[in-house]
């Protein structure tokens, strides 16, 4: 166990319960790994469900794709944590289905079918591998100013999802019921309370404890439905190219562009992860993370799953709990593999009511924004030029998310691209940083406030 209360190079003191290479005892590591699983499970299951529903897959096809999403997420997480040669960052990064690809893959599926989706996923994946290979040359385009803005936008654009699920889930008949909001509020309050008012395992497992409390309280409220458990099978066998594969140039182009955006998200997540332990990511860690994204997304396409990327909510969980141990995240990967092979177990977890997950998501998604804000505040000279880039990028990124009708006059394919706040805001930060005079340089020393805190 590593408890660091000394100021780091950026002048910021940080409390870390377990550092990256620390190994908590299994009685702590296992529940902490489950906590990571619960933090990302909703997205890992919901995103394939959204895509499958939008392109009209049958219930059997949908269930199979969800199981493969869990299996591939687990394998990709293990590769990212422990690496295979240069593939993997060797950092506590949880992998799962990328939200960036949801709208593009729906468009591809509706235009060309499911086989074309997997063809585009496989063929376009090397884009991210190439970005990783040339990261030394490209890294100047991704300074802390740009990556910090991307991390902030990830958190900001996830906020509507957290609120929707807190209210009962998108499209739910009971959306906004006081019962839903009260349950979400209970989970939120429990997570904050255990994290701030308790020490040791009770503090670092605060989100898991809050979710369990919410799960139990949901039973007498009639919000827990376990009917799917009896209907689910015991074993799901992975079958490569179960739905075939097709290749269409326009589909590949759309997917390739999405991989570029996902690279920016991964770069931001790696910076956020290492930022929790008070240091910047190395070039090898960045390259390994991008390689893992690319190769494991290609693997996902072969095994009937959608592209995988780093999960930002788990970066938020690391910052919230102070637990950055690779062992904990590796355990999460193992659980994902198990869930991908045993549908009944997955159904039990999937039965968790939306308000319970929403209450936890409010905390975690907010922490993602806070981590991005810390990257910018601690590592960037906040002069007029850099503040302008942050302001314009965030306003445009959030603006297209909350006012999508503003771009309805564009062609449909362009609307898909411009409707992504992460894409619009991230590209804006990237372009402005490249063309405006000066640079998004890292601060060379502590600010006057930090110097005062250090001397005090």
TrEMBL record:
Residue ranges of the TM segments: 37-57, 63-82, 112-135, 142-163, 175-194, 201-224, 288-306, 318-342, 354-375, 416-436
- A cellular component term, taken from the record's GO annotations: plasma membrane
Q: Which domain of life is it from?
A: Archaea
* Locations listed in the record: Cell membrane
Q: Which Pfam families match?
A: Xan_ur_permease
The protein's UniProt keywords, in alphabetical order, are: Cell membrane, Membrane, Transmembrane, Transmembrane helix, Transport
How does this protein lie in the membrane? Multi-pass membrane protein
Which PROSITE patterns does the entry link to?
Answer: XANTH_URACIL_PERMASE
For molecular function, the Gene Ontology terms on record are:
xanthine transmembrane transporter activity
- Asked whether the keyword Cell membrane is assigned, the reply is yes
* PANTHER family cross-referenced by the UniProt entry: PURINE PERMEASE C1399.01C-RELATED, URIC ACID TRANSPORTER UACT
- What does the sequence similarity comment in the record state about its family? Belongs to the nucleobase:cation symporter-2 (NCS2) (TC 2.A.40) family.
User: Would you tell me the protein name for this molecule?
Assistant: Purine permease
């Amino acid at each position: 166990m590593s408890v660091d209360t000394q100021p780091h190079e950026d002048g910021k003191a940080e409390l870390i319960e377990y550092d990256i290479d620390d190994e908590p005892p299994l009685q702590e590591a296992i529940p902490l790994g489950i906590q990571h699983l619960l933090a990302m499970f909703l997205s890992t299951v919901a995103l394939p469900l959204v895509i499958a529903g939008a392109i009209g897959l049958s219930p059997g096809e949908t269930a199979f794709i969800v199981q493969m999403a869990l299996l591939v997420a687990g394998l990709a997480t293990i590769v990212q944590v422990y690496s295979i040669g240069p593939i993997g960052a060797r950092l506590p990064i949880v992998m799962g289905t990328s939200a960036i690809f949801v709208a593009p893959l729906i468009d591809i599926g509706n235009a060309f079918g499911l086989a074309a989706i997997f063809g585009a996923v496989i063929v376009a994946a090397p884009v991210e591998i190439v970005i990783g290979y040339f990261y030394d040359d490209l890294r100047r385009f991704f300074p802390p100013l740009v990556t910090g803005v991307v991390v902030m936008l990830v958190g900001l654009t996830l906020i509507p999802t957290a609120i929707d699920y807190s209210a009962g889930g998108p499209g739910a008949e009971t959306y906004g019921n006081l019962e839903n909001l009260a349950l979400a509020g209970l989970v939120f309050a429990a997570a904050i309370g255990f994290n701030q008012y308790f020490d040791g395992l009770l503090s670092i497992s605060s989100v898991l404890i809050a979710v369990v409390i919410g799960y139990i309280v949901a039973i007498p409220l009639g919000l827990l439905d376990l009917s799917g458990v009896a209907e689910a099978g015991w074993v799901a066998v992975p079958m490569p190219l179960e739905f075939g594969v097709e290749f269409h140039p326009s589909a590949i182009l759309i997917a390739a562009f999405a991989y570029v955006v996902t690279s920016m998200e991964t770069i931001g997540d790696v910076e956020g992860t290492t930022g929790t332990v008070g240091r910047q990511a190395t070039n090898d860690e960045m390259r390994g993370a991008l390689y893992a994204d690319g190769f494991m997304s290609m693997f996902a396409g072969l095994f009937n799953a959608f592209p995988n990327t780093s999960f930002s909510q788990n970066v938020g969980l690391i910052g919230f709990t102070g637990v950055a141990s690779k062992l904990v995240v590796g355990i999460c990967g193992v659980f994902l593999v198990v869930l991908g092979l045993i549908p009944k177990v997955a159904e039990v977890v999937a039965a968790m009511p939306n308000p319970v997950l929403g209450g936890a998501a409010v905390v975690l998604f907010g922490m993602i924004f806070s981590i991005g804000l810390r990257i910018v505040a601690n590592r960037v000279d906040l002069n007029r030029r850099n503040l302008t880039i942050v302001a314009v990028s965030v306003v445009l990124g959030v603006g297209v998310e909350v006012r999508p009708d503003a771009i309805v006059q564009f062609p449909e394919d362009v609307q898909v691209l411009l409707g992504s706040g992460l894409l619009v805001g991230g590209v804006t930060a990237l372009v402005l940083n490249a063309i405006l005079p000066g640079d998004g340089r890292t601060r060379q020393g502590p600010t006057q406030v930090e110097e005062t805190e250090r001397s005090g």
